[in-house]
């Protein structure tokens, strides 16, 4: 568990700006810092939409800007029923996109059958814009039923549809991502200016990696001034240990979860300086006096690689594939006490190490406690014999894990550095640079996944750095009529409009949460309320309380 000794001195809560802005003007992209005579609105909807920005100073060097753009009552938008096959039988992930897109012939056939059953069905073509690594174009055709003024009416039609043996979802057309939509959008922006920031910018996973906590709970436990949710994590127990990071995670300079090969990480430092976005890989080995073996993972359930991007032999791929759990029956995975109270149980063997890297026991089946300051290495399948031969009781077994950048250069984070997993990229060197294909958000033979996750509007959490070195953390509410959310493309446009030189997408959907001064500011989209997450980014007050 990451612990910080933070004084809880008075936090400033000064309202610095509040204005309804005409379409040609909006608040500075750097709230509360050097206002510019050239002002810019969010690039969402038509140019004539009203926009209001309110900026508050939370502590020296930290501002919160709350942006509301567009109209709460948009007559062109309505509810409808999208005919679909629910994604993932029994999946507990409420963010899993449904299968909604078909080829034109299949969509026409489905719509004709629905009309025969008395439903007002229509077929709509879905086109998506190109990105830096994806050509865009026609994703497929969706089938929708009816136009309704309320969610209640759409849900009633969905019930009738199900009675006829079909499946579908009640959806709001404002979530489709049309550029003509008039909103509204609710966007919150935290800006950390290192020139005046004297607190600590931190990442925290809570008591251990395998358990989830809400962003507000992580914020409260550290007496943070503000917080946002951070990286992707395991949610489905079938995909690993819920709460375990699904990608690179470095806390206080310690690599506690390996990268998804080549995907970006958000690199942060305690003093708020030198924030950057870096693509990362890794190398890991366990070494005895006689020989060594390559590692497959750190602090995760052996055989389950969430978001893929692991090693050769993984099924179905060793490349990144977001929200997919790749498998490999033959793995070596190292564990630290940060994982949890007990390591994962199951077939295989586990070498248990003390604080001096000495093997104090071999257990089979694997699973159990780790000595204080020690660790363990688990082997499954064909790797069992390899580990058994290497790890003799009483012998030393060193575990090494090295981060590498995109050029293969070694990265050695300091104890004041944290890295959280992210993707796709949104902005690079001040230009829109969206990378869904590189980062595994393009699923072969499944355009519906891209449609639901990338193309459509959802709640989003973004992060980046501007040209002045300020760290900027952004949340956008979605999945409601009160705030439409952002597509991935819109997320990039918003990040650039806020002045970000480099920006990346963090975990979103129901995970999107911003906390300030002890309160959840936004409206998390899960029906159950704020979602427990894997980790969070924390803005802590100065240690002396000033």
General description of the model:
This protein has 6 helices and 37 strands. It has 546 residues and is mainly β. The strands form 8 sheets. It has a 9-stranded antiparallel sheet with strand order 1-2-3-9-32-31-33-29-30, covered by helices on one side. Strands 4, 5, 6, 7 and 8 form a 5-stranded antiparallel sheet that branches. Strand 2 and strand 3 form a beta hairpin. The protein is globular.
Descriptive terms for the model:
single chain; 546 residues; mainly beta; nine-stranded antiparallel beta sheet; five-stranded antiparallel beta sheet; 37 strands; 11% helix; disordered N terminus
Summarize the topology.
Blueprint: E1 14-21, E2 51-59, E3 62-69, E4 79-83, E5 101-102, H1 104-116, E6 121-128, E7 137-148, H2 151-163, E8 168-172, E9 185-192, E10 200-204, E11 213-214, H3 215-221, E12 226-229, E13 249-251, E14 254-257, E15 264-269, E16 276-279, E17 281-287, E18 292-294, E19 297-298, E20 304-308, E21 320-327, E22 332-335, E23 349-353, E24 359-363, E25 375-379, H4 383-390, E26 398-404, E27 410-411, E28 417-421, E29 425-428, E30 431-432, H5 447-455, E31 460-466, E32 471-476, H6 488-497, E33 500-505, E34 514-516, E35 519-520, E36 532-533, E37 536-540
Parallel strand pairs: 19-22
Antiparallel strand pairs: 1-2, 2-3, 3-9, 4-7, 4-8, 5-7, 6-7, 9-32, 10-37, 11-36, 12-34, 12-37, 13-14, 13-28, 15-16, 15-28, 17-18, 17-26, 20-21, 22-25, 23-24, 23-25, 26-27, 29-30, 29-33, 31-32, 31-33, 34-35
């Amino acid at each position: 568990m990451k612990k910080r000794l933070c004084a809880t001195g008075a936090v400033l809560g000064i309202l610095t700006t509040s204005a309804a802005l005409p379409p040609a003007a909006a608040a500075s992209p750097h709230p509360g810092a050097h206002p510019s005579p050239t002002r810019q609105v969010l690039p969402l909807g038509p140019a004539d939409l009203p926009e209001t920005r309110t900026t508050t100073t939370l502590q020296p060097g930290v501002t919160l800007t709350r942006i509301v753009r567009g109209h709460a009552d948009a007559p062109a938008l309505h509810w409808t029923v999208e005919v679909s096959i629910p994604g993932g039988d029994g999946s507990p992930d409420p963010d899993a996109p449904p299968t909604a897109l078909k080829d034109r012939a299949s969509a026409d056939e489905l719509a004709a059958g629905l009309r025969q059953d008395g439903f007002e069905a229509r077929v709509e073509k879905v086109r998506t814009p190109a990105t830096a690594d994806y050509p865009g174009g026609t994703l497929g055709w969706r089938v929708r039923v009816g136009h309704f003024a309320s969610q209640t009416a759409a849900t009633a039609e969905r019930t009738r549809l199900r009675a006829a043996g079909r499946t579908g979802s009640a959806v709001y057309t404002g979530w489709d991502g049309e550029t003509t939509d008039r909103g509204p959008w609710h966007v919150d922006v935290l800006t950390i200016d290192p020139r005046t920031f004297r607190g600590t910018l931190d990442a925290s996973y809570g008591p251990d990696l395998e358990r989830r906590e809400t962003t507000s709970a992580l914020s409260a436990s550290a007496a943070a001034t503000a917080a946002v949710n951070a990286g992707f994590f395991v949610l489905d127990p079938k995909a690993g240990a819920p709460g375990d990071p699904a990608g690179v995670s470095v806390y206080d300079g310690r690599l506690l979860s390996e990268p998804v090969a080549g995907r970006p990480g958000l690199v942060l430092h305690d003093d708020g300086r030198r924030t950057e976005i870096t693509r990362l890989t890794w190398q890991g080995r366990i070494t005895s006096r006689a020989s060594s073996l390559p590692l497959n993972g750190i602090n995760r359930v052996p055989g389950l690689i969430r978001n893929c991007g692991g090693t050769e032999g993984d099924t179905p791929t060793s490349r990144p594939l977001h929200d997919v759990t790749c498998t490999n029956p033959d793995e070596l995975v190292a564990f630290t006490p940060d994982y949890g109270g007990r390591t994962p149980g199951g077939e295989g063997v586990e070498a248990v190490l003390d604080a001096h890297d000495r093997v104090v026991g071999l257990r089979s089946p694997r699973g159990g406690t780790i000595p204080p300051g020690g660790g363990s290495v688990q082997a499954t399948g064909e790797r069992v014999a390899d580990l058994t031969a290497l790890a003799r009781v009483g012998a030393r077994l060193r575990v090494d894990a090295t981060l590498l950048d995109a050029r293969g250069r070694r990265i050695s984070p300091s104890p004041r550095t944290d890295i959280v997993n992210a993707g796709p990229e949104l902005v690079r060197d001040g230009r829109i640079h969206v990378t869904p294909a590189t980062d595994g958000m393009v699923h072969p033979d499944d355009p519906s996944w891209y449609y639901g996750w990338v193309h459509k509007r959802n709640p989003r959490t973004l992060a980046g750095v501007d040209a002045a070195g300020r760290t900027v953390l952004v949340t956008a509410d979605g999945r409601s009529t009160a705030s439409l959310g952002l597509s991935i493309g819109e997320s990039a446009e918003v990040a650039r409009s806020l002045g970000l030189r480099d920006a990346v997408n963090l975990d979103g959907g129901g995970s999107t949460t911003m906390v300030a001064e002890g309160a959840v500011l936004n409206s998390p989209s899960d029906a159950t309320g704020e979602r427990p997450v894997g980790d969070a980014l924390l803005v802590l007050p100065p240690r002396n309380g000033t």
